Amino acid sequence: MTICRAGNRAFSLAVVFAIWGWLIAGVSVADEGTYSIEQYLNIRSTKGGSWSPDGRRVVYLTNVSGTDQVWQVPSSGGNTRQLTDGKERVAFAEYSPTQDVIAFGMDEGGNERTQIYLMNGDGTGIRPLTQNPKVIHTFGAWSHDGRYIAYASNERDERWFDVYVMEVATGKARRVFEQDGMNEVAAWSWNDRYLVVTNWESNLNNNLYLVELESLKDRHLTPHTGYATYTQVVWPFESKNFYVVSNLTQDWSKLALFRLRRGIVDFLDAAMWDTEALTISRDGKFMAYSLNVNGYSKPFLVDIDRQKTFGQIPLTGGVVNRFAFSPDAKKLLYSFTSPTAPSDLWVFDIASGTNRRLTTSDTAGIDPASFVEPEFLKYPGHGSFVVPAYFYRPRDAQRDGNGAALVYAHGGPEAQERPTFSPLFQYFLSRGVSIFAANVRGSAGYGKTYLTLDDKRNRMNSLRDYALGAEYLKKSGWIHEKRIGVIGGSYGGWVVLAGLTEYPNLWAAGVSIVGISNFETFLEKTGSWRRPLREAEYGSLANDREFLVSISPVHKADRIAAPLMVIQGANDPRVPTNEAEQMVAAVKANGRDVEYLLYADEGHGLTKLKNRLDAYPKMADFLRRHLLRPATATEKPAAN
Description:
The chain is α+β, with helices and mostly antiparallel strands. The protein contains 12 helices and 36 strands. Strands 29-30-32-31-33-34-35-36 form an 8-stranded mixed sheet, with helices on both faces. Strands 1-2-3-4 form a 4-stranded antiparallel sheet, with no helix packed on it. 54% of the residues are buried. Residues 1-32 and 631-640 have low confidence and may be disordered.
């Protein structure tokens, strides 16, 4: 997830639900389950995964200490070792391809102004490579010879990101691509003579440029009309061409061969799903990627020379976040999670076809057999659309029309709800509360057309899809019509606020986390580097101000009937605190029930354990009092 693009469109499910507390009373379950909320919150997970140059070790991120830090494990398995122990989260960690050193990044207090650091492979000798705390640095990649790193930065102008190359030994950096836009590193050429740079015009449209590093001459590679994206560039060894994933002239993002002289000439996968997690071995012999099939990953391992797929990686029912070949191309490292398994690293041996788990995220004494899989379903949305969704129901749920549910609204809005592990989902389920997570129109994973269906003037159609999801629950026979809450973060926070104002009688309670309340002030105050991409999605202040006013919940706060909780990080560069504070003030002015939690050392969501521990009991009490109150005598269960 990058700051320039993907980070703008996705609000981590784990971050959203990391501020949920425990639910008690009001449903036909015991006040206390088998496991405590503290146990669920202590379930660990891993991220990333990068091979050492000799292939003997792997570094990754895990939240064992309360925030994501850098850890190391032998690639053959064995004892893990913590390499960083800072108070701030680590954003990434990448081994040099030739030296026993690791580049990693951290921000401060969630402000996303990431600085890049270097350390030895044993965690010693940490030194900064960038030292401007007012500037954002988005890591790209190491050069193949290990001498340089490439990254993007808004050092020249806060509004724009240029691309830089730094000599690691000296710390000397030079700007190699300058353009007033949102630019980031896509790939190095195999011989390190060129960089492929991505320029984002919107989250639905980008271009690739080829930069010759000696002369700094650049060439536009992807002139096109309409919307198209070019992502996941990988450049094979000794090749004049590279692979890319693109949706040019089609609805789905597919694997393609890009010839520098002719552009895309061959789409290599005909499946009607998006391609993701593309990678290639250093020798150019093997390729790995997966398809996003209704949110689930379907992996492929390809022998490029023989042009055939082989090696059936045994992954089912979950999501692959990353593939990485070992330096000798004999093994494939990947990160995998499912609704019943926290994210962990696995190693697939290509020759033998064996699969081995490299890390084991602790489940804090909770029996994994107690975790619940969702039902994948589709329900009628607004108009003639059907909406895909995941419906999690407690193991002991009774179809008596008396259950409670939380509708989860993902962020983005160009994100996708996927079947990954959520400790808080599983906690709620253990307490008898269902979770309903939909991919309404405008979500990723269902093609380019579906992704654009909520743009600008179509914004409220996606909100109607969420409301119809709640109506579906009421008619399902599982859920009581007075026990449906809504929760979401970032754009999902707007869904909560807008849902409470547009459909005030539908919800029992709402929780908005770093949510947008006023699109005018949001676009005025969000990080200036983000505004062009956000206006492409929501509408511009210059041309669409009247419409933006009409969809801003702060102007309709008098309609809110359900209790509301608002949670905000003081350092949020995306959705500044003003969005929370003006909404809280408006709700209070109308005499409605609202609770506000503000955390001084957080940004776009809660990431620090101490803050989550503060938020949990407050959230628990809020939900106990409002969402799960006993039904009155006049409230009847929904009909089966």
